[in-house]
Amino acid sequence: MKGYSKYFGGKLLWFSVTFVAAFLLNFILPRLMPGDPVAVITQRVTTGMTSQAGVQKVYEEYANLFGTNKPMYEQFFLYVRNVFRGDLGVSFSQFPRPVADILRSSIWWTVALQFPAIILGWIIGNTLGALAAYLKGGFDKMLLPISIFISNLPAFGLAIVMLVIFGVDLGWFPTSGGYGFDLIPNMSWQFVWSVIVHYQLPFWTIVLIAIGGQAIGMRSMAIYELNADYVKYARFLGIKDRKTIMYVFRNAMLPQITGLALSVGTMVGGNLVAEVIFSYPGLGQTILTGVMGQDYPLISATTLVITLMVLIATFVIEILYGFIDPRVKAAQAD
Amino acid sequence: MGKVMLEVRNLTTKYITRFKEDIYAVDHVSLKIEEGKSLGIAGESGCGKSTLALSLMGYYFPPLYYTSGDIIIDGKNISGMDPDVVRKSILGKEVAYIPQAAMNALNPTQKVIRFIEDVIHVHEPQKSKKEIYEFARDRFEQLGLPANVLEKYPVELSGGMKQRTVIAISVILGPKVLIADEPSSALDVTSQKMVIKMLRDLMDSGMIKAMIFITHELPLLYNVTDDIMVMYAGQIFEKAPAHEAVFDPLHPYSQGLMGSIIVPEAGLRDVKLTAIPGTPPNLKNPPSGCRFAPRCKYVKPICKVTSVGMVHVGEDRMYRCVMSEEEIRELQQ
Amino acid sequence: MKHLLQQVFRSPKFLVGFVIFSLLLLFVLIYPLFVPDNPLGIIGQGTFFEPGIYVNAYDVIGTDPRTLMLDNAAANRIASKLSPADRTAMQEYLVAVGVDEEDIELEDTEKLLDLWEAYYDPAARPAGFTAAQRRYYGRLTNNLFGILSLESVVIAAENPETGVMEQIDEVKQSDYVNVNKVANVRWLPLGTDNFGRDVLTQLVSATKTSLQIGLVAGSIATAIGLTLGLIAGYVGGWLDDIIMFITNLFTVIPGIVLLILISFSIGQENRGAVTVAVVIGITSWVWTARAVRAQVVSLRNRDHVNLSKLSGHSVAHIIVNDILPYIASYVIMALILQISSGILAEAGLSILGLGPKTTEVPTLGLMMNWALIYSAHVTNKWWAWVPVIVTIASISFSLNLMNTGLDQVFNPALRED
Predict the structure, then answer these.
(1) I need a labelling partner for A301 at 20 to 30 A (CA). Which of B285, C120, C181, C347 fits?
(2) pTM of the predicted protein model
(3) What pLDDT sits at residue C212?
């Protein structure tokens, strides 16, 4: 167990460092850019106001509210303090709604949509890829072009195609939103059903995207492993093909897990755009609203939340990997 | 003359490439090993010696296919057998294989003992894990390997240790014939020595009745095996007792091969190294006539037309050339 | 070099990708020579005109008519006048007055009209129809049979001197004009978009811009990645540690987050296509840096590099002469992938509303964004978005094919499959 705690500790330290770096970037990047967010909001609020002094007063008020009139380091500590209190500021575009409140209502949509879909897509994709490598022939010849096609289509492209085919033409599923627009969120059967129905298209789109990418990776990984020396050796000791195939799939799967850890950020990013296509009430839509409303605090907080989400997901995958791959423990034990 | 442990008659096997071309990498090979003897096989890379090792197992999978010939182990002809019978009753029990790249011969995500369990279960499915562990531990200790190796993953073992573990696993079912394909090539000198010693001990203790040792390092063969066979382009070109094969080769190719290496032996210090000009033929369409003719410095017009059979010299020597022994010796002067 | 190129072009995958990409590029370059219009010029008043050939109706009147006696002209005319809604309404009426629903075929205009003539009675008041509906049926009938009975239409214009309407032309049902003779004809192969802009012209311009964005972003990303990878891999030591630390950081921090933050902070007004390309470039070098470093580390201790070191060559000389040639193929492949992902990144950003400003040039992402905002995808205005997705997919597909082809040539181990 000592090996694991060492591995776990190392990973935890690394992710903490990464988070601090991401946090800093999140704070610094927007402030390095030309333009003054307070000026933007002042301009919005004071549209139509003629008195210069009035505008100036509004500007000062907001500068005070967001702390932009203080020196950079003071702003930073203020920011850190507020974030740790769960205070992510007040939205510009939905003033005076707190940003934390907006995010609370959208983050779970994204989490509940993306992570199950990515995991399911990963499982199906790897199974198909492994089968293609093993069975070869017709199955492989059919699966490979489809996978290549899907993985070449951007996430939003697949989302639109799915939406038009199953939502518009066939009319099987609703085309937008997370639940019926005429419903108010509650625990009634009607509402839950509506959520389930709205969930299908975005969910299966993300599953498909994940399958496309994973199947290709797993296929070449499994082909590589099938030609490995240990397969030949095991066969010459009389071990059944079915058993050696199990060795191969297990070994080919391991790099796929690491691959998932490395690509989960990219996947989530692409899927956020897909969410926008379905007008799903998740973080993708939040970003869009933020951009449209020039809502600086909202964007800043959303990116921070996405980073945190991806970091946690990556961390969890890497920890799981540590338990699955015996070599990790062996390497740490030295 | 001792009991014949392994006899191979006219064995031919081929690769089928993905362009559906046939490549005969082992072409009518015959050999015989008596009990307690070992045979070395030498040749340039690509001469078919590794393919011969694979072919001798009597168990084929793509892209290697059996074409014709017989493999007789301890009186049992295994070449006509059902592959599943070969897998269950021959592999590991009658004949065992030590692969070329032992570095990667073990599944990296499996403990050594788990793999041994899988191996033993093929032949003795009723054996319990505990029995297998005790059996394996005894066998490892007998071979001079620490028992804790069993509980380790391959990555935790050094190169030499990994190779010795592979050898121990190969012989765990007590095979009569061992086929070692370059077992020591990738190792450092110390580990190499230990591996060779282990193989010799296996032979000396009678645990293994016969061994085929394949390598491109001739000095090693000279020290390890009783006889040496030289392969070229899928065919046997010469077979002789180790000493004669190295110091008095008959076939022009063997002469070239022996001339291109240093055998650490007194008196050889000032011998000049020579290289054989040209490259081995492409086995997709080997030259008609003698396959070595295009590179042979003594080549005659007839060599390019007719292929030649083996010429026997005395009890235990043979070579494949149109020239007589005297002719060759004359040319050598 | 020549041999290598031959080998590359003999790879079927590379060839297919190359051909698709070249055709696309060729079209993008040639099209503006024939249609030099401003891609953002608004030509249509109204949204989403269907693809087709638009013939100026005014010019048609002034064009010399020719008489063609074609049998099915009348039927076609009525068929085109009868909308699907009209047909369903007619069916409803016919069923109400006792026609078996089985006998009515909505698509067969001639049969429908025969039935209508037989059963429709303007005086009858079948149950279940309001007065408004009865009036509608009356108008419909007049229209239909008006078309049949009309011999010609008279065109009149006001005489500017007298102010009296005077007949200036008469158009008969059998009059035809040659399209080539009509002064103004506009072919809109992909119709117009939500702003009334020619979709094809816009698409060509957008493809060009997007390719440029991809090229700029890809070049920047590859340049940064290559430089960092070379330094980290060859120089090693603390430089390697620092570079790898940063690289690992940006591997885990999602690129899209940085993209969003930077693009948003720059602001809509300052985001030109080039700016967006640069932003994409500086946020996507991570994979190239990692891969280049790995390659360089494995090259660093090769014999030929050691030999070069022993001969006293400078670090720059060694990198240029002994390292770069060995990773060149790899870098080219990375560049191709970066171009493709740069184009996709721009599209993603634009959909989130963070693309280049909308007033200068169209990009594939912006076109997608407009189509989405104006719901082209849910209202069956396929011409506004299908061509965009097809273009994006073809670019990405052809570049990836080329990449796979190159990979197979340069890494023969992969040729197995």
Answers:
(1) C347
(2) 0.80
(3) 94
Tell me, yes or no, if A254 comes closer than 8 A to chain B by beta carbon.
yes
Token pair, residue A285, equals 């839509």
Burial class (CB in 10 A: 0-12, 13-18, 19+), C121: exposed
Q: What does the domain layout of chain A look like in residue ranges?
A: 7-103, 107-281
Q: Assign B95 to helix, strand or coil.
A: strand
Contact state of B107 with A238 under an 8 Å Cβ cutoff: no
A237 touches chain B (CB under 8 A): yes
Q: Which residues of C touch A268 (CB under 8 A)?
A: 254, 256
The answer on pLDDT for A221 being more than 80 is: yes
Q: Where are the domains of chain C?
A: 2-42+195-414, 60-183
Q: Shortest Cα distance from B113 to chain A (angstroms)?
A: 14
Query: How many beta-carbon contacts under 8 Å exist across A and B?
Result: 76
According to the CATH classification, is domain A107-281 in 1.10.3720.10?
Answer: yes
What confidence score (pLDDT) does residue B159 get?
Answer: 79
Could you say which of B92, B104, B109 has the minimum Cβ distance to residue A327? B109
Nearest CB neighbour to A164, from listed C270, C377, C416: C377
- pLDDT recorded at residue A193: 84
pLDDT of residue C415: 43
The mean pLDDT value of chain A amounts to 82
Q: What are phi and psi of B13, to 5 degrees?
A: -135, 160
DSSP B282: P
Average pLDDT on C138-145 reads: 81
Name chain A contacts of B106, Cβ cutoff 8 Å. Answer: 230, 233
ipTM of the complex as predicted: 0.84
pLDDT band at C200; cut points 50, 70, 90? very high
Tell whether C385 lies on the interface with A, counting CB pairs under 8 A.
yes
- What single-letter DSSP state applies at residue C182? S
Question: Which sequence spans correspond to the domains of chain B?
Answer: 4-216, 252-333
Cβ of residue A82 closer than 8 Å to a chain B Cβ: no
Reported as a single tens digit per residue, the pLDDT across B94-146 is 888 888 766 788 888 888 888 888 888 888 888 888 888 888 888 888 888 88
Query: Cβ of A303 and C266 within 8 Å?
Result: no
Q: Chain A: give the shortest CA distance to residue B276, in Å.
A: 32
Q: What is the pLDDT of residues B227-257, one digit of tens each?
A: 888 888 888 888 888 777 777 777 877 777 7
- B165-168 long-range contacts, Cβ below 8 Å, gap at least 24? B165/B106, B165/B112, B166/A233, B166/B98, B166/B99, B166/B102, B166/B105, B166/B106, B167/B98, B167/B143, B167/B195, B167/B198, B167/B199, B167/B202, B168/B139, B168/B140, B168/B143
Report the pLDDT averaged over residues B186-215. 83
Query: Quick check: A250 contacting B, CB < 8 Å?
Result: yes
Alpha helices in chain A (DSSP H): 2-32, 37-45, 52-66, 72-84, 99-135, 137-152, 155-162, 189-226, 229-236, 241-277, 283-292, 296-324, 326-333
Percent above pLDDT 70 for chain A: 92
Within an 8 Å CB–CB cutoff, is residue C145 touching chain A? no
Preceding peptide of A145 cis, ω within 30°:
no
Residue B172 pLDDT > 50: yes
List A330's β-bridge partners, or say none. Answer: none
Instruction: Classify domain C2-42+195-414 by CATH architecture.
Output: Orthogonal Bundle (1.10)
Whether A234 and B153 lie within 8 Å, measured CB to CB: no
Give backbone dihedrals phi and psi of B203, rounded to 5 degrees, phi first: -70, -45
d(CA C113, CA C122): 15
CATH code assigned to B4-216: 3.40.50.300
The pLDDT of residue C388 is above 90: yes
Per this entry, what is the length of chain B?
333
State the number of CA atoms in the 13 A half-sphere of B246 facing the CB: 23
Q: Do C253 and A22 touch (CB under 8 A)?
A: yes
- Does the CB of A323 have a partner CB in chain B at under 8 Å? no
Q: What is the mean pLDDT of chain B?
A: 80
